């Protein structure tokens, strides 16, 4: 995952609204969001088929979302180190104390953002130090370099999801403040661009997946697209919790 826009508005009916864009080699296979992890049946996320983890996990019951973004300082993990794809799963399970259950020292560098109805926390690991920072309500942007100030496009800061309490509605209605920013963007050979496309030998490193998230405890809405730079249609899915597990509403 390489770009995250997060609007945290505690006290509102839908306190968590995000856009998460995943940049990865086009050849690396992944599954679109679902309940892929039997030991965390209320968690929804896309699944990386190589390592089995995720770049973005949302717990439907708690309304919590965690996103991991790569950092450039340490690109390669030590032999035998855990995949960074485990971090969002740990964060939605354990909250701010997720680091107590894993040794990050051998891992590749990362940013980890955890947003709950009551808090927004960002951790950065440059290969040496893990640093946590609590953030204030508002809209924040994160890239591989960390928190981006100012935000890349002012329309992110000025806009929000226009969504009812049941999180219903068409993508172009609910995300009409943010969706045009994707439509206006052209993929560039710049790892910090909103949409990326960088040739790598016979492969290409590009924005392979995008998802909008609207969440409150008990209900999760995702609008997502494979290769969003070229997507004319976005898939909408909603989940609620039933018996401790996520149930797809449609």
In short:
Helix content is 9%, strand content 42%.
Task: Describe the overall structure.
This protein has 250 residues and is mostly beta strands. The protein has one domain: Penicillin V Acylase, Chain A. Helices cover 9% and strands 42% of the residues. The protein is built from 4 helices and 16 strands. It has helices spanning 87-94, 154-158, 171-174, 179-184, and strands spanning 3-8, 16-25, 30-34, 43-48, 56-59, 64-70, 110-116, 119-125, 130-134, 138-143, 146-148, 197-200, 203-216, 219-226, 235-242, 245-248. The strands form 2 sheets. Strands 1, 2, 10, 11, 12, 13, 14, 15 and 16 form a 9-stranded antiparallel sheet that branches. It has a 7-stranded antiparallel sheet with strand order 3-4-5-6-7-8-9, covered by helices on one side. A hairpin with an 8-residue loop joins strand 3 and strand 4 (43-48). The longest helix has 8 residues, at 87-94. It is globular, with a radius of gyration of 17 Å. The chain starts with a strand and ends with a strand. The mean pLDDT is 95.
List strands and helices in order, with pairings.
Layout: E1 3-8, E2 16-25, E3 30-34, E4 43-48, E5 56-59, E6 64-70, H1 87-94, E7 110-116, E8 119-125, E9 130-134, E10 138-143, E11 146-148, H2 154-158, H3 171-174, H4 179-184, E12 197-200, E13 203-216, E14 219-226, E15 235-242, E16 245-248
- N/C terminus separation: 25 Å
Oligomer: single chain
CATH architecture: 4-Layer Sandwich
Q: What sequence of helices (H) and strands (E) makes up the elements?
A: EEEEEEHEEEEEHHHEEEEE
CATH class: Alpha Beta
Helix proportion: under 10%
Write down the overall geometry: globular
The CATH homologous superfamily: Penicillin V Acylase, Chain A
**Class of secondary structure makeup:** mainly beta
Poorly predicted ranges: none
Q: What is the total domain count?
A: 1
